[in-house]
TrEMBL record:
GO terms for cellular component: membrane. It comes from Chitinophaga niastensis. Keywords: Hydrolase. Gene3D superfamilies: alpha/beta hydrolase. This is Alpha/beta hydrolase family protein.
Length: 302
């Protein structure tokens, strides 16, 4: 979590939850769950609207959960009609058009690009969402849009991609993760510390998550799936100044997964990493490579 980027409304909600947590742990758990399943509202910039208007837009009907077949409309965006296809996944509260520079670079290099508004984001359906739903939706998108040459995911989108490729019956030749979130349990624990929510709430929250999502929070942890990601090649870019996806966590993960290639930059933080020039160049070089490279490449860029 990164307190300086939290909006005032979320900080005020944290104060309220902290005060409620010890005397009313059940109510606090339900309010916390609702809060963290509700993505922030996002208004597109003019340049993002212009990029959207150049895409072929389609509404894809998927089911909401593996255990709930309620239809969920997902709006997809496509550019190009020849070449290898690359799927882009935005993060929590993000937009497909945050990949503006990468989309342009991919198209100039002869790739097709497909992306979509995540559930409860942009023009897609839903008001609240969660990682279990994102994985289920991604699995359906991959099967309907494939074959894919690569998936590129930023932050929550990267965790979604890695868990989906680990746990679902889908695979991809190349996976790129930028400023990746590694663990939903760690995220929730960080939020509890940030908002000073009493520990008595956590057991209530874990029970609620299992009841609503049919699985435990501990299953949404990438550390459980080391060497199980069904991608031939994996590449991670991270920033040493990123406080939402700390470099220390990613370095620790890379130490346990030495087959992953990586690029380390400094100074762009969490949200600008997807348009950093060295990252764009690194992605393009990685996508163009043949075969599996068993090495860990790191470059410091000031």
């Amino acid at each position: 979590m990164q307190q300086q980027v939290l909006p005032l409304s979320l900080r005020m909600a944290g104060v309220f939850l902290s005060a409620m947590s010890r005397p009313f742990p059940g109510i606090t758990a339900r309010l916390f769950y609702r809060l963290y399943c509700t993505p922030p509202a996002r208004k597109l910039r003019a340049t993002h609207e212009q990029l959207r208007d150049t895409a072929i837009t389609h509404q894809l009907q998927v089911t909401s959960y593996p255990f709930d077949y309620t239809p969920l409309p997902i709006v997809t965006y496509k550019w190009g009609n020849t070449g290898p296809k690359v799927l882009l996944l935005h993060g929590w509260g993000g937009s497909p058009f945050d990949f503006k520079q990468l989309i342009t670079t991919l198209l100039e290099s002869g790739y097709q690009v497909v992306t979509y508004d995540g559930p409860a984001h942009g023009a897609s359906g839903g008001k609240r969402t969660n990682l279990v739903q994102w994985m289920h939706v991604l699995e359906q998108v991959i099967k309907k849009e494939g074959p894919l040459h690569a998936i590129v995911g930023h932050s929550f989108g990267g965790l979604n991609a890695a868990l989906t490729l680990s746990r679902k019956n889908v695979k991809v030749p190349r996976l790129v993760m930028l400023g990746i979130a590694l663990s939903a349990p760690v995220f929730f624990n960080d939020a509890f510390r940030l908002f000073r929510i009493h520990p008595v709430v956590m057991p209530q929250l874990l029970t609620l998550i299992h009841k609503r999502l049919k699985e435990g929070l501990e299953e949404l942890d990438l550390y459980r799936y080391i060497n199980k990601i069904k991608a031939d090649k994996i590449w991670i870019a991270y920033d040493t100044t990123d406080t939402l996806a700390p470099a220390t966590d990613i370095i620790h993960f890379l130490e346990q997964y030495p087959a992953i290639e990586s690029l380390k930059i400094t100074g762009d933080g969490h949200f600008r990493i997807a348009r950093h020039q060295a990252v764009l160049e690194g992605i393009m070089q990685f996508l163009a490579k043949e075969g599996v490279v068993k090495t860990d490449v790191a470059a410091d860029i000031k």
